[in-house]
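== Fold encoding ==
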Amino acid sequence: MEITKTDEKLLKEKYQNDTSYLDKLKDNYPVQYLIGDVSFCGYQIKVNENVLIPRFETEYLVDKTYKLIEKLNITSPTILDIGTGSGCIAISLKKLLPTSIVTALDVSETALKVAKSNAKLNNVDITFFNQDILNTKITDYDVIISNPPYIAYDEEVAPEVKYEPSLALYASDSGLAFYKKIVDNLKLINFKLCALEIGATQKKSITAYIKKNLPTSKVICETDYNNLDRYIFILNE
């Protein structure tokens, strides 16, 4: 596994005379777990095998969501982060919107432990709940954001992904289960904006489900820096 010079320097500083990490790298073990943290939207986020490693694509999700909140003039928004994992999304939005009230939920207690630690590290006040969105009815929020599990169980993944928590990666219904459940919840509540990160081949299926169940909402689809379909924004109009 190739790593950057910066990561190589960090690993040498952390492990010093211990070279055992080299064997892990040869077996495609994620360098982020070896280092123990990543920079996300400019904030330090601790990571371990209990949480998904934050990606650049998700930084784009946060940035685009923040800009939409500003454009829609949603002041002091109530925000719900579904499947918070490391807490990176919730923490970044709270930093960007200090007067917001942020709630984050995750089915994994071990992931929430990491998220709470990251919230403390970044000095932000976030309310965390141990809940499974597939079995939870949510209440009114101005903004709902999620980078949920969206990989189908029979889908091939990169070798290093096998070390990340399966709960954060895989979903039933060809990877669509969480999106459908979130949209089903949106039908029952008052909201202003829902921001979703999606798999690159899921745009058509998800937008069709949204338009069927939320016919009066406006749907915006955007691509990531690789020009792949990656984000869906639902505006409750």
The two ends are 47 Å apart (CA to CA).
